[in-house]
Amino acid sequence: MSAGSPGHPDTLAEDENRLLKAVLGTCPELEQTHGLVRDFAQMLTQRTGAELPDWINTARAAQLPGITRFARGPTSDLEAVIAGLTLHWSSGGTEGAVTRVKKIKRQLHGRAGFELLRKMILLQ
Fold it and tell me: pTM for this one?
């Protein structure tokens, strides 16, 4: 495994896999964390959000401080998070545009009226 670019776990070389298993074997909590993180990453990449409630229950039962705290987050709006992990639609483009407009507005520090702000947005 080269420093800085670990690669996808499924594409590790044989010696890298052995090293990973050896490291994980030294600490049960680390092995458990590794499994939970991989399961969550799989939900993200394969869009299987319906598995999220089971993952949250497993993560809470593990009682690993960082994972348990992370698992608590999605429960406030579980249906929306499940939809985000399942559906292919994304509001990323819209969010990016809003962020760009806010950046331009901040750069002007309230010195410009709506017309100048509009022109700056259209020019960039």
Answer: 0.67
pLDDT for res 6: 62
- Measure the CA–CA gap between 11 and 8, rounded to whole angstroms: 5
- For 5, phi then psi, to 5°, come to -140, 85
Task: Answer yes or no: are the C-beta atoms of 121 and 101 closer than 8 Å.
Answer: yes
Contact 71, 35 (CB under 8 A): no
Task: Please state, in angstroms and rounded to a whole number, the distance separating the CA atoms of residues 43 and 55.
Answer: 9
Q: For residue 89, give the 3-state DSSP assignment.
A: coil
- Would you give the distance in Å from CA 82 to the centre of its chain? 13
How far is 108 from 116, CA to CA, in rounded Å? 9
- The residues facing 5 across adjacent strands are 2
- 52-62 and 28-46 are packed helices; what angle lies between their axes, rounded to 10 degrees? 170
